[in-house]
Amino acid sequence: MYGKAFAPEYQGALTTLSVNSSLDDVLAAGTERLRAAEQAGEHGEAARSGLAVAEAHRRLGQVREADLAWKASYRAARDAGDVAAMAWALWSGGTLARQRGALPLAFRLLRLAADLGERGGDIVVRGYSLAGLAETGRIQGDYEAVGRLHEQLLAEARRRGEARHTVWALEGIAQMHRNSGDHDTAYALFEEAAHIAARAEDRRGHAWALRGLADIVSVRDGDTERALALLTEAEESCRAMNLSGALAYNHKMRANVCYRAGRYGQARRLYEQALGEFRAMAEPRGEALSRLGLTKSLARLGRDRAETAAELAELAGILERIGLRHAREMVTRAQSELGVGPADSPAESPAGARARTAR
Predict the structure, then answer these.
(1) Where does the pLDDT of residue 342 fall: very low under 50, low under 70, confident under 90, or very high at 90 and above?
(2) CA 270 from chain center: how many Å?
(3) Please, what sign has the CA dihedral across residues 220, 221, 225, 227?
(4) In 10 A of CB 245, how many CB atoms?
(5) How far is CA 23 from CA 5, 59, 170, in A?
């Protein structure tokens, strides 16, 4: 039913690159081809090789370089009069904006990308852009608004036999079920995604599916060792492809699993590791979630209650500003779990809490 996974973002002279190519290899090949295209005045080829450069930088967590690259790709596509290539560049820019926590900008760029993809007759970039819109809404926690879009995109991907997009849609729907408390449905969907990804040789999609399975196995079954084994298997693919973002989320999930098992010291170390990784790639959502886990771990290890309350209140304000509803609800649950109410100000710092307590 499904063919081998492919990477449509690797275009022009770079179509020989695999979906599983190391990002370092993609960046090297893309940069070389981009320079050659620019020297030859080939705007269309520069746009398409520049897209691969932008995506490699983004997935490596190199935000500034990715931002410059997608904009250069868009300008080259515009100069070439290539509407579809313009759409791909905007898709890359919108995906980067979501990664940086700039959700309104992500929505704007991805809508433009979907419109241009339709105008340019490229159903793949249109689908990827709609998927980006769906994912942006999903991480906000707006499941009612994007649930139907996820299902629509899943049906289209199944119909075309696109393994990579099918896996993405299954994982997104699974995550919404998991966050809504339907662990059995989430497990079945993550499991299907893992099987399809494995058969299609989509190592990135397979790693994300294993991470989802590990989460369910931990929270539903309490099977800590199996969850950690699944994460170890996923980490191998992340390291092989140098997937910085996926690896950071893998480490955060490993910390979650340890926290649930009462291994608070181990969880603390893993949250600190993930926090450093997210900060290095300027990923505010991952950073905030790692801070939340670290705060909970420190509280379990005896941290001052006033400091814990202030840290959670500060995180609530950060997540509110980003627009992450589900993550904001996680802070509320943490406040209840740890028995600390909201501080006087949502932006109060731990230092401020100490000063207020001293008074």
Answers:
(1) low
(2) 18
(3) negative
(4) 18
(5) 16, 8, 24
Per-residue pLDDT for 356 more than 70?
no
**Would you say 291 and 315 are in contact if contact means Cβ atoms under 8 Å apart?**
yes
Q: Provide the 3-class DSSP secondary structure of residue 232.
A: helix
Q: In Å, how far are 59, 117, 204, 323 from 138, measured between CA atoms?
A: 20, 22, 20, 11
pLDDT surpasses 90 at 129: yes
Structure tokens at 184: 């059995």
Q: Which residue has the tokens 């904006």?
A: 97
Q: Which of 196, 139, 190, 201 is nearest to 166 (CA)?
A: 196
Instruction: Give the integer Cα–Cα distance in Å for 91 and 112.
Output: 8
The Cβ of residue 351 has, within 10 Å, a number of other Cβ atoms equal to: 10
Highest mean pLDDT among 17-21, 73-77, 241-245: 73-77
| Residue 273 burial (C-beta neighbours within 10 Å; 0-12, 13-18, 19+) | middle
> What band does 349 get if pLDDT is binned at 50, 70 and 90?
very low
Angle, in degrees to the nearest 10, between helices 43-59 and 63-80: 160
What's the start-to-end Cα distance of the chain, in Å? 68
